[in-house]
Design the sequence.
């Protein structure tokens, strides 16, 4: 699911934009949600620092010490993949906005048809970006691959497990493997893990730990492969965790 964040200092505009986005998601079968809508720039920055954000829609002039370009600059220093869309009634800001690798620029007042055109074009761009997103169920379900902790085989289904929720699709490891980057490694006949999200490994229980409530098993025949990946992939924190849990 794509996570949108929108920021505008005008509450009426903010709420109208949120309603238009929700309508566009529903009408076009887009698997997305608005994780945060706020008129406060500081709240937006705090949320972005603590959560994965896929799309950021920013008013440029926020009538505060921090403007939309400042937020975009902070985001770009940490994440080059977030889609940034600017909105403003001041046309002179348009050229400034594009320096932040802006996906689009929406002049105010924003009309739903123009917004929908941008969102659909963004979805088409995502479909052409296999390195960041995994598309399931004929591209109707989109998952940021960084959010996936592990993939579980459950009969004819694959279950994609993140910290917040799970996603199911009828598929097999063989079919999905070509869509996955090298940090996804088989650790069990029924599990494939994202080694970047491993927080610890309990070697006594043959368990990989992602968070206090998320874990999966290591199969005996896959244990050496996992260790080799950790050794050769610069995942030093994970390897230390393994060595300390003897």
Sequence:
């Amino acid at each position: 699911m794509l996570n949108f964040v929108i920021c505008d200092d005008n509450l009426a505009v903010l709420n109208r934009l949120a309603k238009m986005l929700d309508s566009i998601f529903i009408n076009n079968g887009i698997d997305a949600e608005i994780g945060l809508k706020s008129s406060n720039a500081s709240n937006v920055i705090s949320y972005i620092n603590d959560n994965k954000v896929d799309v950021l829609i920013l008013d440029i002039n926020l009538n505060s010490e921090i403007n939309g370009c400042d937020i975009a600059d902070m985001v770009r220093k940490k994440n080059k993949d977030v889609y940034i869309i600017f909105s403003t009634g001041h046309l002179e800001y348009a050229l400034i906005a594009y320096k932040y690798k802006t996906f689009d620029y929406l002049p105010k007042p924003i009309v739903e048809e123009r917004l929908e055109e941008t969102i659909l074009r963004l979805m088409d761009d995502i479909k052409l970006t296999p390195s960041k997103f995994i598309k399931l169920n004929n591209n109707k379900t989109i998952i940021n691959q960084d959010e996936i902790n592990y993939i579980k085989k459950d009969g004819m289904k694959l279950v994609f497990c993140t910290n917040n929720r799970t996603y199911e699709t009828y598929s097999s490891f063989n079919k999905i493997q070509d869509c996955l980057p090298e940090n996804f490694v088989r650790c069990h006949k029924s599990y494939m893990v994202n080694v970047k999200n491993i927080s610890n490994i309990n070697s006594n229980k043959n368990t990989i730990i992602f968070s206090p409530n998320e874990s999966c098993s290591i199969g005996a025949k896959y244990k050496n492969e996992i260790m080799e990946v950790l050794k050769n992939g610069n995942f030093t924190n994970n390897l230390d965790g393994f060595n300390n849990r003897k």
Observations:
- Confidence is low (pLDDT under 50) at residues 234-246.
- The longest strand covers residues 32-38.
- The two ends are 37 Å apart (CA to CA).
